[in-house]
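Alpha/beta hydrolase
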Amino acid sequence: MTRTVSAPAEAPRSALLMAGPPPRDELAAWSDAPTDDRGLAEVPAFVDPAPPGWTELVDGRGVFVRRHERMVRSDRDPEPSSEPIATPDPDVPAWYVHGLGGSSTNWSRLGATLAPLAVGYSIDLPGSGHSDPPPGQRYSLTADADLLAATIRQVTGDRPVHLVGNSLGGMVVTALTARHPDLVATLTLISPAVPDLRLTTDRGADPRLAMVMLPGIDTVASRRLARITARGRAEGLARTCFGRPDLLSDEDLQAAADDLGWRFGLPWVHTSTLGSLRSLIASYCRLGRWSFPATAARIQVPVLVVWGTRDRLVDVRLSRRTADAFPDARLLVLPECGHVAQMELPAITAAAVAALWRRERLGDAV
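Structure:
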């Protein structure tokens, strides 16, 4: 059956949609991370339903969690060989954390692809998706990290887990790893929203976003956001977050709009986005032990950093510097990919994550 692909219509501009830096596909040469697609499941379509979930009561707050079940292995399982095959520990669960304005559904494709290797759990951060906002609407990156750690302990116990985070979620899982090192086996960061203090005109996110720190800006920004329809938001996010938005069909965009539509009825939908953005920017000002470089330097688990060469929100030129900040990290730079590799290129992203998990199980001999 022929699948019709149409380009997204022009979306209304908002304070959160930025042009970003130009494509830098040549930086894919920076990659040094191995990939291994053995045992992975087939990638589901964008329009396939997200896995079911439930609300977990953690420290008196509702945290929504989805479970990505193990699936039947694909025909890409390895042929019999005399060489030992590195298999990730099936008892180590994976936890996936979305970025600003996202939700647990952002992990439906990657979670399903990796499900044969690890049962996965994706959460809605406070104020996102089905999760309750924080008390008093006080958003905090470190508070999110501690709440996530408490959720992990409550759902899958005290054993170490594989953490995977995108954008803001990448910063949350980095903070969690530093604050709760006993709870983490490996760390994967997909376009993490690392500090960018460079004085350049072609950087990632627009520095005017720092205006959210001004008193009273919430009302103005919320009104602008409220004027954008669910379909307009889906199209705008596709243009902003995908390296190749033209590959999304009209059906794909409508499915995204349907997912976003119900969230618009939540009274905190816009304040949660602005509050989380404010907490992220505030984290950039931390000095000393809790600055990002100092935090990364303390992390001893194996790390994978994944970045798209067409990321309009966090400049791919930061990718090597980010990987170098960790004592033990590999880098995968994906050509023609944007800010959400787990959605746009889940197969190659999953293969790199699987290689990291196998390496953690059997060491550098893998």
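Confidence is low (pLDDT under 50) at residues 1-17, 72-85, 211-217.
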